[in-house]
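re the bet — no i am not wrong, look at it urself. input seq straight from the record:
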Amino acid sequence: MPDSQPQPPPPPSSSPGPADPSSLLLCGARLTDGRTVDVRLSGGRIEAVGTAGSLAAGGTRACGARVDLGGYLLLPAPAEPHAHADTALSADAEGPVSYEPQDVQRRATEAALLQLGHGATAVRAHVRVGDVQGLGALAAVLQARRALRGLAELTTVAMPRVLTGVAGADGLAVLRDAVKMGASVVGGRPDLDPDPTGYVEAVLEVASEHGCPVDLHTDASDPARLARLAAMAGGLRPGVTLSPCGDLGRLPSQVASRTADQLAAAGVAVVCLPQGGCGGVDRRGAAPVRLLRAAGVRVAAGSGALRDVSNPVGRGDPLEAAFLLASRYGLSPEEAYDTVSGSARAVLGLPEVRVEAGFPAELLAVRGDRLAGALSLAYSRVVVHQGRVMARTSAVREFCSSAASVELGLPRQGRGQLS
């Protein structure tokens, strides 16, 4: 079920009028059901979807701009539910990672724009608070969020290290201060605390005080600990998310199935990281996605580390995460794409998106005519956020002319000719 219902589109005007500068017409896009359509956007929402050519003649409301999407597949935009903005793009740094505010803000901004270019119009970034960096890294990421307003949605998860005992008193105070500063989600890694259950209790208490979602890192290696977490999390709204849960698949099958049932009953979502680990976990390997989905757990997929010490070649590309879930973990292309789009948006508390009138205009156009092909060769992309084109990526492939390609009539891209 969507977290919030789409609003119906505004009624059409009774007579043609001048072009609406805020509207946008996407022409000739292909949908996953095989239809080729025009899609009119206005006021940040999808206003109309019609047969190709039916909306292009002006009709009751002329459009201010048009984008030709012939040859593209139009999809609900992905969202990124698990990023690390404070350490992103730091793998090549000499010496320790710099937490100077200007460096963190620059990296966070560049990372969010890179992910936007891939199609992610919303990003949830986990940011460490406390210890040496205090609240400086969080303040820098929040500044990046303000600078990105209108381009992409960046939300932050405050991640303290220790929350129990004498050492945890400072961490708990920092966590509360982080929420007051603007962190919209509370999280962290209970596995690192001397009292993991106490850590979870502290996080849930702060979340309950402020009405915040919870997003916790865990390897999920201890089923008893997960059972206690599920029991404590049940009923908490707006919800609890765990990631990446890579060790859950290493448990005996009966134990893993029972744990999945407990998470489903408590309404706990899981974000897996098929592209690799992140700074919050030490091991690699994705969660048992099919087992979790079969139990009724909402499963989303994130990118994890983006070129930092945890994964120096991370791409931050949601479509690569979907590709890996389809190629390695047995999901259909449709199921895999849902983990980075519909389910990812639900985990982030965002409204559902469909390519239908009345839904938010958060869209991704990928060159191709089938979802499987788009996940395999997702080179050229057009990204729409709040009804406006925010990013374009164009890839041109050229081949040297050959008799075989001419004789067989093979498709060929390219503006020139290779010699």
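see?? The chain has twelve helices and 16 strands. told u. also The CA atoms of residues 166 and 172 lie 10 Å apart. so pay up
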